[in-house]
Amino acid sequence: MHSLAGQVFLLQLAVVMLLVAAALVVLVVQAQRDVMADARHRTLTVAQAFANSPGIVAALNSANPTAALQRHAEAARKDTGVDAVIVYGLNGITLAHSDPRQVGKRVIGPYAAAATGQPFTSTFKGSLGLSVTSAVPVRGPDGSVIAIVSVPVTVERVQHRVNRQLPLLLCGAATALGIAAGGSALVSRRLQRQTHGLGPTEMTRMYEHHDAVLHAVREGVLIVGGDGRLLLANDEARRLLDLPADAERRHITDLGLDEDLAGLVASDRPATDQVCLAADRLLAVSKRLTAPHGPVGSVVTLRDTTELRALSGRAEVARERLQSLYDAGLRIGTTLDVTRTAEELAEVAVTRFADVVTVDLLDPVLRGEEASGAPAGITELRRSAIAGLDADHSLHPVCELIRLVPAHPVSTAMAEGRPVLVGELSASDAWRSQQPEGARRILDHGIHSMLVAPLRARGVVLGVVGFWRARGSPSFEDEDVSFAEELAARAAVCIDNARRYTREHAMAVTLQHSLLPRALPEQSALEVAYRYLPAQAGVGGDWFDVIPLSGTRVALVVGDVVGHGLHAAATMGRLRTAVHNFAGLDMPVEELLGRLDELVAQIDAEEVTAAEHWQGAITGATCQYAVYDPTSGRLAIATAGHPGPAVVRPDGTVDFPQLPVSPPLGLGAGLPVETTELTVPEDSRLVLYTDGLIEDRIKDLDAGLEALRDALAGPGRTPEATCAAVVEAMLSDRPRDDIALLVARTRRLGPDQVAEWEVPRDPAAVAPVRTACARRLAEWGLEQVAFSAELILSELITNAIRYGAEPIAVRLLRTEPIGSPDAGSLIFEVADGSSTSPRLRRAKVTDEGGRGLFLVARFAERWGTRYTTTGKVIWAEQTLHHDAAPEAEGLGEALLDQWDDTAL
Fold it and tell me: Locate the PPM-type phosphatase domain: which residues (predicted)?
């Protein structure tokens, strides 16, 4: 059934079956329609005949209509073959019925039309079942309807008549189907013999192959019959043998072929690649006999080998050269290092093409810079690689600077941008002129031929590659120039890629280092150490920060921008600057991350807009921001898609606090960031890091966290020692991602470093607080700054009493920096219940106030305002350098500077 004949047989059989089935269905439906039409006609005729029969009106008007009509109704039913003849009164009472039990019963039926005088026929389900019923009115002498005659025939009786016709119809259909199937089988059998049982796909493929053999293949094909006559010749065979147009059906010996070729083709022996002469061509003839797989005959193939032998030697050389170029493409440029790429070029050309290979590059290329100046003006090259010589060779060694003369072959190759061939070095005065003594030693070493090719990529000359042949190898020829040029061109692209990578990598590293913190700021709350390790793939977007805040608080920041390269580094710089600016405003932790999320979303929107003009990248970034307060030991921390911190307790145990993680920056969609507050014991170590420390392709997150726990465990370590231990335990030699690690050991301000006072909202309360401040400064040994400290504190308290709201509190902090010879600082904080922020202004001549904050700014190192949940805090910081205490006499000058002498 897979053959074409089988499929045709099935198709014909299916068509015949469909036609027979359709005819059978039509006949059955038509018979059923005819029988139903006959039933309706017969019932209506019987009903009309009975309703109009003589004496029916008298019977209906008699005293006993049933007795008068029942006998006639039954007789009419039997004579006409209907199921019943029924007479109803207009009141629905049955007067006569073929079933006596139904007489006298009231019936309800669709007889309204008959009662009005209109006969009708319908299919109705009555006491006899589903029936074809006809109803005819019986009219009185005056024409009025006095009764209804109904004659039904059950559908079952009608269907029985149809069923009696089905056997005849089925027999006819089966006979027609059998005759059609037999005819189709005969036709298909004949078709099968003619097509050899092939299917449509196989016949199509055979036709396509036949067409390809005749027209497409570049080999001659001959099919010869058993009697030596040519049955088929394709286009290529006609061309190779110069056959006449009427060659087919002619004997092989009559076609004018060479005697040997004609004898081989006409014989009954096979052959494989037997070379025969045909006019001026050498043909490789292969012959195969078709028997016993087909009719007696043979198939002959012809290939023109006239030029093959002449090209075989050159083809072998070309194949070796192509293989060498292919190997060079695989072996050169495996790294993005300029020197290593030059070494790979020298190594790949040795022994296959030259005995010695040298690579000389410009110094700017080795540094990753653009080559400057015209090629004709290049006079210095640096030997970057050499291969193929032993240690006592006489050529310039690696890293030596080579000075060129204008007539030297290397100078000529670079100036003209083409390879220069020196077949015999001993006969080249231009080559010997540069270093005659060195040239003599080279010749004594056995080197006798040189081929120089410039390394040129993207229109810029990067250097030259020199190919040298020594004793035992033939001199370079003109055919070697193209190979050398192609090899140099491929290597030049790889060297230029390495140069560009070196330049871009250096630029990215420089940019990244300029954006990362260069030194940790001075502060007294934390002892901090850090490590930053760039990824193997280049610079990335990881960053960290330690930002001193007001009130001796310190912010710790760790962030990560997805990706590598200049885009990630530049985005990191923008985010780090934004964090510094937001932190300078003393924002709460959650508000700062919220503002940073808005900034990243804005950057993403700008990148999407810019992507229409260039390939912009959507920013992906995470950040963790923590603020430590040494006065209370509280740590407020929030994270946006960043791994949580580790806390090393003073006893050496490691804990990873569970923090609510907000979405990464740019994906928050305006949702609030959740903040967690922890109380950290003194001498604990806070460890913040980026995901490159704990995540890798070969280990999952849980394994990384466990490894970090083991590296951090142990008491008594300094932050620097902790960083060293983590780096040694966690990092590989070539990390795949940037890693930022920040370790901070906490300190607490002791009770002797903090002084606090509650201040009522009364101007008279300023003096007692000022006196208490002077007393505490004397206890701290800071009498030299008492005057300026009392002045700053008085102005801040007075400002809070006048413009603020209760409660008002004053706090004085004495800080001592970690590991610094500096004497520390004094911090003044005045808190009140108002959220109104003061601002510095220059008072007018007629103003009575407005100079307090100016004095604070004059004598304090810095000052500012931070908001709290209950109000605000105005703070000022005064350094305790020995030369920083202002003289009391300077106060008068500072105040007088506020008035304009000319105005007074």
Answer: 527-746
The CATH number of residue 150's host domain is: 3.30.450.20
3-state secondary structure of 716: coil
Say whether both 730 and 787 belong to one domain: no
Q: Which of 132, 80, 137, 131 is nearest to 114 (CA)?
A: 137
Residues 684 and 720 in one domain: yes
Residue 374, phi-psi category: left (phi > 0), alpha (psi -120 to 50), beta (remainder)? beta
pLDDT at 715 over 80: yes
Residues 47-88: tens digit of each pLDDT: 888 888 888 888 888 888 887 888 888 888 888 778 788 888
pLDDT digits (tens, 9 = 90+) for 1-48: 566 556 676 777 777 778 777 877 777 777 777 677 777 787 888 888
* Number of independent structural domains in the chain: 5
Q: What is the CATH number for 431?
A: 3.30.450.40
End-to-end CA distance of the chain: 123
Residue type, 740: A
Whether residue 345 contacts residue 335, with contact meaning beta carbons closer than 8 Å, is answered with no
Using the structure block, give the residue that is written with the tokens 């963790």: 624
Beta strands (DSSP E) in 369-507 are 380-387, 401-403, 420-422, 449-457, 460-469
What are the phi and psi torsion angles at 713 (to 5°)?
-65, 145
Domain membership of residue 518 (yes or no) is no
Question: Is 478 domain-assigned?
Answer: yes
586 CB neighbour count, 10 Å cutoff: 21
Closest alpha carbon to 461 in 522, 540, 542, 372: 372
Residue 442 belongs to some domain of the structure: yes
My answer on whether 776 and 856 are in the same domain is yes
Domain hosting 437: range is: 339-506
**Cα separation of 519 and 504, whole Å?**
25
Residue 849 pLDDT level (bands cut at 50, 70, 90): low
- What length does the chain have? 904
Cβ burial, residue 418 (10 Å; 0-12/13-18/19+): middle
DSSP characters over 207-249: HHHHHIIIII-SSEEEEEETTSBEEEE-HHHHHHHT--TT-TT
- Whether residues 423 and 443 share a domain: the answer is yes
Check which CATH number belongs to the domain holding 621 and give it.
Answer: 3.60.40.10
Can you tell me whether residue 683 is helix, strand or coil? coil
Lowest mean pLDDT among 492-501, 644-653, 707-716, 880-889: 880-889
Q: Tell me: do 299 and 348 sit in the same domain.
A: no
Do 598 and 707 fall within a single domain? Answer: yes
Q: Is residue 333 part of a domain?
A: no
Phi-psi map region of 273: left, alpha, beta (phi>0 left; psi -120 to 50 alpha): left
Please say which residue of 286, 305, 324 terminates a domain: 305
Same domain, 686 and 562: yes
Long-range residue pairs from 415-420, CB within 8 A, at least 24 positions apart, any chain: 415/375, 415/376, 417/375, 417/454, 417/456, 417/461, 418/454, 418/485, 419/451, 419/452, 419/453, 419/454, 419/481, 419/484, 419/485, 419/488, 420/451, 420/452
Query: Do 62 and 44 belong together in one domain?
Result: yes
pLDDT in tens, 240-283: 888 888 888 888 888 888 888 888 888 888 888 888 877 777 78
What CATH number corresponds to the domain at position 766? 3.30.565.10
Q: Please write the tens of the pLDDT for every residue from 541-596.
A: 888 999 999 888 999 999 998 877 777 888 888 898 999 999 988 889 999 999 99
- The burial of 293, by beta-carbon neighbours within 10 Å (0-12 exposed, 13-18 middle, 19 or more buried), is given as exposed
- pTM, full prediction: 0.56
Long-range contacts, stretch 879-888, CB < 8 angstroms, 24+ apart: 879/822, 879/823, 879/824, 879/825, 880/782, 880/785, 880/822, 880/823, 880/824, 880/825, 880/826, 881/822, 881/823, 882/784, 882/823, 884/785, 885/784, 885/785, 885/788, 886/787, 886/788, 886/859, 888/787
For residue 814, give the amino acid letter.
R
Strand partners, 530: 742
